[in-house]
Amino acid sequence: MDAYALLLASTLNAGTVLALAALGLLINEKAGIVNLGAEGMMLCAAIAGFAAVVHTGSDLAGFAAGAAAGALLALVFGLLVIWLNTNQYATGLALSLFGAGFSAFVGIGYVQEKLPQRMRFEVPLLADIPLLGPALFRQHPMVYLTIAFTAGLVWFLWRSRAGLVLRSVGESPESAHALGYPVRRIRLAAVVVGGALCGLAGAYLSVIYTPLWVEGMVAGRGWIALALTTFATWRPARVLLGAYLFGGVTMLQFHLQGRGVELPSEFLTMLPYLATILVLALMSRNPTWIRVNMPASLGRPFHPGS
Question: Domain 3-112+131-293 adopts which CATH fold?
Answer without folding.
Answer: ABC transporter involved in vitamin B12 uptake, BtuC (1.10.3470)
